[in-house]
Amino acid sequence: MSPVALPRVAPDAVGEALHRLRVAGVFYCRTEAAGPWAVDMPAFGDCLAFHVVTQGEVWVEVTGAPPLRLGAGDLALVPHGRGHLLASDLAAPSLGRVDLLPQEYVTESYSVLRHEGRGDRTQLVCGVLTVDGPAARPLLDLLPAVLHVPRSAGAPWVTRTLELMTAELAQPRPGGEAVLTRLADVLVVQAVRAWLDAQEPATGWLGALRDPDVGAALAAVHRDPARPWTVAALAREAMMSRSAFAARFTQVVGVPAMRYVAAWRMHVAADRLARGDGVAQAAAAAGYGSAAAFSRAFVRATGRSPGAVRRRGDGVSR
């Protein structure tokens, strides 16, 4: 009896890329304010900031983007670590940098900021997060200066996740920070996914992930970067001829297939180094049998030595 041919199941390359994100909370703040107010959020390097309004309205103003008004239940992400302004009214004078203002520190990583005035009341939950993983930089580079997920967009998960976060913040308990980190992980990934889903037509790296043929090859490389990939092996993942795949990959991704593989391996290696792995471990994860050969390739690709990245604890520069 001949085997039954099963239909090809296209991998969810976008979903797999999101799954590889690692989100960790740096700081959380609940703000309760009345009357006109404004605060400056300083730049936080490569961190991502999120703001969710639970009562009233808040303006978010980031340099290079038009001011954004958030209503209750709306979520905004500022993904590139840029400084920005939060205000009940853009004409209100700033109270100063939010991290320098008097506030109640419930824990080292959570505070409550209060401002009393005459006027409407506003409540919001804010957080500063790190987002790591090999896919973090390519994904975050796709995002705009401010990513807005309005409550009206039909995203009940924002409300549900926020309710859970608010409960943890209101009554800190053992393990609360771990719960907040997981919830923030969900909040950010869901927001990024909602934004990605709305991008039509998709181009660049996102378009490549969504491409039914090229996306299958990308997903395979992302899953197993150390495999001895060749154009022929990638073409088999895409179920295409070698020549057709090579042309299609370059057209969709913008670089030849093996150049992409080499770049992805450097992202993987940099991520391993930033997490504290040794050079030999990072080399193996990137498919190099020799630490010396890996080190030379890493310097050529990034301009930094593996040891420098490991000591500093960050990934490949944007």
Short summary:
It is built from 12 helices and 11 strands. It is an alpha+beta fold and 318 residues long.
Structure characterization notes:
The chain starts with 12 loop residues before the first helix and ends in a 6-residue tail after the last helix. Helix 3 packs antiparallel against helix 4 (176-197) and helix 9 (257-274) packs antiparallel against helix 10. By secondary structure, it is α+β, with helices and mostly antiparallel strands. It is 42% helix and 21% strand. The protein has helices at residues 13-19, 136-142, 156-170, 176-197, 204-210, 214-223, 231-238, 242-253, 257-274, 279-285, 291-302, 306-312; strands at 22-34, 38-41, 48-55, 58-62, 68-70, 75-78, 84-87, 104-107, 110-115, 121-132, 147-149. The chain is elongated and about 70 Å long. The model is unreliable at 1-9 (pLDDT under 50). A 7-stranded mixed beta sheet has the order 8-9-1-10-3-6-11. The chain has a 4-stranded antiparallel beta sheet with strand order 2-7-4-5, with no helix packed on it.
Short descriptors:
318 residues; seven-stranded mixed beta sheet; elongated; disordered N terminus; single chain; 12 helices
Q: Percent range for helical residues?
A: 40-55%
What's the arrangement of strands in the largest beta sheet? 8-9-1-10-3-6-11
Order of helices and strands: HEEEEEEEEEEHEHHHHHHHHHH
Low confidence ranges? 1-9
Distance linking N and C termini: 55 Å
Q: What oligomeric state do these chains adopt? A: single chain
Number of helical segments with 4 or more residues: 12
Radius of gyration: 22 Å
Helix/sheet category: alpha+beta
- Characterize the largest beta sheet: strand count, sense, and whether it forms a barrel: 7 strands, mixed
- Principal-axes geometry comes out as elongated
Beta strand %: 15-25%
Mean pLDDT: 84
Please tally the β strands and state the result: 11
